[in-house]
Structure formats: C-alpha cells, structure tokens
Write a structure and sequence with these properties.
Layout (H helix, E strand, L loop, with lengths): L2 H23 L2 H10 L4 H19 L4 H6 L11 H25 L5 H17 L6 H34 L4 H27 L10 H23 L11 H20 L7 H23 L7 H29 L1 H14 L12 H18 L1 H10 L5 H21 L5 H15 L7 H33 L1
Helix pairs in contact: 1-5, 1-13, 1-14, 2-3, 2-12, 2-15, 2-16, 2-17, 3-12, 3-14, 5-6, 5-13, 5-18, 6-18, 7-16, 7-17, 8-9, 8-12, 8-16, 10-11, 12-16, 13-14, 16-17
Length: 472
C-alpha cells in the first residue's frame, strides 16, 4: 500500500470522525430547544434531526468548503512541498475532532467552524509564519464572539416579549394564539427558505438573485401559512371567556407591575406625597402576597392549550433548522478532505474543486451517527441547563436564531450558529429576568468559546508534526 493511499484512507477516517463530532455537538443548535421545552423526546429529536441533517448535508452541502480549503492559509506557501499541506490538513481534522469530542463530553456547545478554522490557522502559522495567514478570518471569528449571541439574544428577547404580550397577557390567549399562528408560520418559513437559498444551493446549480430568492421564499411562506390555517380549524373551539385560574394569574401579574411602578414613586415624589403613597404600597404588597399564596402550581388551561399549539410550531422549527444546519456545517468536515483529495490526486494546490458527492454522503452519515450516539450531552445543556424552556419560549429562541442567521448572511457579518442559538436561549431567559438564567452554565460556555480557537490551533500543530514524523 502506497503512502498516498494511506493518506487518503486517513483523510476519510478523520472526515468521518469530525462529522461524528459535529453531530454530537452542533446539532443541538437545531433540536436542543425542542427537547428542553418538552416538544420532542430525545429519541424523536434524534430521528427528526438525523433525517433533515442528512438531507441538508447531502443535497445542499459544500458551500463553506472553499473557505476552509483556501480562504484561511495562503496555499502558495505549500507549493514546493504539497505533502506538508496534506499533513497539516490531516492534523487540523484530527485536532477539530478531538476538541469537539472533549467539548461534547462536558456538554459545551462550541462552534465547529471556529474549531476547524483555529486548527488550520495553527499549522499554517507554524509552517509559513504570520504572512501565510489571512488574518481577516481570525478577526471575523473574534467579532462573531460578540455579534452572534447579541444578535440572536436580542431578537429572541423581542420575539418572546411580543408573544407574551400579544398571547399570554391577552384575556383570551387561545384565540390570540390561533390568530397569530399563520403569521408566525409565514415568517418562519420565509426566513428559513432565505437561509437555504442564500447559502445552500450550490450542489443543484440553482443560482438566484436576491429578488428571486425573496419571491420564492415568500411563496413558500404563504403556502405554509395557508396549510397551518387549515390545520388550526381542527383545533378545539376556544372559550368565550377566560377561566378563573387565568383571571387570577393575570390579575396577579398586573398587581406585580403596579407594585413595581408604585415603589419607584418614592425616588421622585416629595416627602408629603411619599407619605401618602407608602400606605397604598403596603396594602398592595399585602394583596400581592396573598394572591401569590393562592397561585395554582399548574398553569391555567388556556396556557396549556397555547403551549400545545406551539409544540407543532417547534417541530417545524427543529426540522427546518436541522436542514439548514446540515446544508452549511457539514463543510467543516469535508472541506479539508476535499483539499487533501485535490492535492493527492495530482491537481495544483491552488485549484479549488467542487466537493465530490461521496464526501457529502460520508459527512452526512457521520453527523447522523454522532447525533444518535452522543448528541444528548450538548442537547441537555442547550435545552435545560441555561434556562427553563416551554414550547413558546423554545420557538422564540429558534425563530430569533433563524432571523439572525439570514440577516448576518446577507449583511456579511461573521456569525456562529452555535453562538446564535445559545444567545437566543439566553435572550428568552433574560425576558423573564436575570433570575431565570443559570449563570454557572453561561460561565462554562463562555470559557469554552474563548478556548476553542487556541485549542484547535495547538492540537493541530502537535498532530501536524506527528504525522510529518511518521510519513517523512
């Protein structure tokens, strides 16, 4: 067996290993909120995500591979010794796989894109020096640490606030939810379609300008909303008046707001006015405390029906996000392998070729198996350890993440899908107050984000020298 054959076999094995770890870590971006909210069991989430991740990876993948192949390191540096480039890319693959496996073991949702980019930067820096790296890529990663969670969190916060005010604070929440659902479905399908059309249609050679993409996405959204309108008619008839439990809960929430507003009067009022306000505030606090003691442990029947409706919306969210994720992030595994195959089959190192179909199949299969065997660890972190999620909260987080992805894609902003969804979950938590956030989990996630790029770089350097020593 020749050295070239051995290197090709290693490339395919490492590709599958990285794809396996992408499935174990990154797929939580798509289904973590659905599992955490109870909309999906872990087993059903794995099955749904496996189907849609594979379809996205196999039919629409490969768009990011060119960046990984030649957009990080100046390939001309390796023109005199192309095998060093092969060793470096193999080391980068192995480094990315090892770091993702470590992160998955601890349940840290880290960016696979940042991991592989850090790994490629590591061996490129050691081999060719500072001039061999396109530093704009690294600056984009640093920017995304701030841009991704802020955008995702802000939009999720806004969406959940709107849902809470328009539905959960409505005297008739079920009716309000039924009215809003077609518009939510239209908006979500429109956004997801744009993500796919803007980023993932390279394999079927369909080129759309922005007007065509928007028009086709709008058509898909309208059709989806009409279907949802038809399905809603099968929903149980709504009540003409709110239940006593809902009236009591909403009255309690209004009293809490009134208490908060009245307690701030003292900061602006005169001493005489404050003396008159204080007895009212004391009575209001006593009434609020009395109502709090009578609160039901279970939510009102109307809220349970609303959450049941949002379960269906979350299923749509999970499937669409899994499809979009598979179409984009599979290139983190197959991009370096495409570059290795390109060099070992005798092509010029600076030539960028399309990704072979068999690599898309290998990457898609690896993602599915990784999700099925180890994906539960990171799904648990995203879905349950940051903040408590319900179907409506999970939908708001997924919707906010989807909007962030499509906006950033068209504006050219560097983002990480992992950072976006974690930021979106945090945004939903902040909408309920800082007390709803698990700050210890957030601390661990933030540290893992900061460590990801240098960890990938250091590991890739170690593996680069080990592979070079073995085959040289």
């Amino acid at each position: 067996m020749t050295v070239i054959t051995v290197l090709l076999i290693l490339a395919f094995v490492f590709c599958f290993y990285v794809a396996w770890n992408i499935g174990a870590n990154d797929v939580a971006n798509a289904v973590g909120t659905s599992v955490g909210s109870g909309a999906l069991t872990l087993r059903r989430a794995v099955i749904l995500a496996a189907i849609f991740e594979f379809c996205g990876a196999f039919f629409f993948g490969s768009q990011v591979s060119e960046t990984v192949e030649g957009g990080i390191v100046n390939l001309a540096v390796f023109s005199e010794n192309t095998l060093d480039y092969v060793y470096g890319m193999l080391g980068a693959l192995l480094a990315a796989g090892v770091w993702l496996q470590v992160a998955s073991f601890f349940g840290w949702p880290v960016s696979t894109t940042h991991t592989i980019v850090g790994a490629v930067i590591g061996f490129g820096l050691i081999y060719g020096g500072f001039g061999a790296i396109y530093w704009g890529e690294l600056s984009s990663i640093l920017a995304s640490w701030f841009i991704s969670p802020l955008l995702g969190g802000s939009l999720a916060y806004l969406i959940f606030t709107v849902l809470r005010r328009r539905i959960f604070y409505s005297p008739l929440p079920v009716q309000a939810a039924q009215r809003m659902t077609p518009y939510l479905v239209l908006s979500f399908f429109f956004i997801i379609s744009l993500i796919i059309f803007f980023q993932g249609l390279g394999n079927i050679k369909l080129s759309l300008n922005i007007f065509q993409a928007v028009g086709l996405s709008l058509l898909i959204g309208v059709l989806a909303s009409l279907i949802s309108l038809f399905l809603i008619r099968r929903y149980s008839k709504h009540e003409d008046k709110p239940s006593k439990e809902l009236q009591q809960l909403q009255a309690f929430m209004v009293l809490k707001k009134a208490e908060s507003s009245l307690s701030r009067v003292g900061a602006f009022a005169t001493e005489e006015l404050n003396d008159r306000v204080q007895p009212l505030l004391d009575k209001l606090r006593a009434l609020t405390e009395e109502m709090k003691g009578k609160e039901q442990d279970a939510p009102p029947s109307e809220y349970r029906k609303v959450e049941k409706l949002f379960i269906s919306l979350q299923l749509i969210t999970a499937c669409a996000m899994a499809f979009a994720h598979g179409s984009n992030d599979v290139a983190n595994a197959i991009g370096p392998v495409a570059a290795i195959v390109n060099v070992l089959t005798g092509h010029n190192i600076t030539d960028i070729h399309s990704v072979p179909i068999y690599l898309l199949f290998l990457g898609g299969a690896g993602i599915v198996i990784g999700l099925a065997t180890w994906g539960w660890r990171v799904i648990e972190t995203v879905g349950t350890k940051i903040t408590d999620l319900t179907p409506s909260r999970g939908f708001a987080a997924g919707f906010g993440a989807a909007i962030t992805i499509v906006l950033a894609s068209k504006l050219g902003l560097p983002i990480s899908t992992t950072h976006v969804i974690v930021g979106a979950v945090l945004g939903v938590g902040f909408a309920r107050g800082i007390g709803a956030i698990n700050l210890y989990t957030c601390r661990d996630i933030l540290i893992s984000w900061i460590v990801t790029v240098p960890a990938g770089a250091i590991l890739s350097v170690v593996f680069f020298y080990c592979l070079k020593a073995i085959f040289s």
